[in-house]
Design a protein that fits this description.
This protein is an alpha/beta fold and 171 residues long. It contains 6 helices and 5 strands, in the order ααβαβαβαββα.
Amino acid sequence: MHLKSGHDMPRHMLKPAIGIASFLLLLLPSLQAQAGCVETIGREDAPGPFEGKTILIVDDHSTDRELSSRIFKIWGFARTLQAASAREALTMLDGVDVILTDVQMPEMSGIEFTRQVKASLPGLPILMNSADKIPTEERGGADAFVQKGSDYEDYRKALTDILRKSAESGI
């Protein structure tokens, strides 16, 4: 699924003008199908890797936070917390099992946020995402990176991997 938010669209596509027709084509695939959801409601024999876990989603774009939250709930996360800024997120770390953070945010970048979290909670897994590719050495210690616009299966794999590694390390 490739979502485009208003800030990614050419300006002429966002501003209607007199004498110019405007239209919006919105294609919404099934959220459950896109999330790779296998129907497990009522199944007690197949706990997923996210069962009982809490994820903190840090992004200044509410649409991105809300969509991610919905998908993560479908995947089985027990709680999805949302923070509109890195500063707000720093006050919400108690009880969090994993973090998804954007890089480009006002006041404090996701890179600086990641550095601060890793300084105090080195074992807390962090998945970083951005529209831009960020070299590994510039990610502030994030455990994984997924470029925005990637398929949600890439997010699922990255989250599964970093939670597994965190559990194995016992930090």
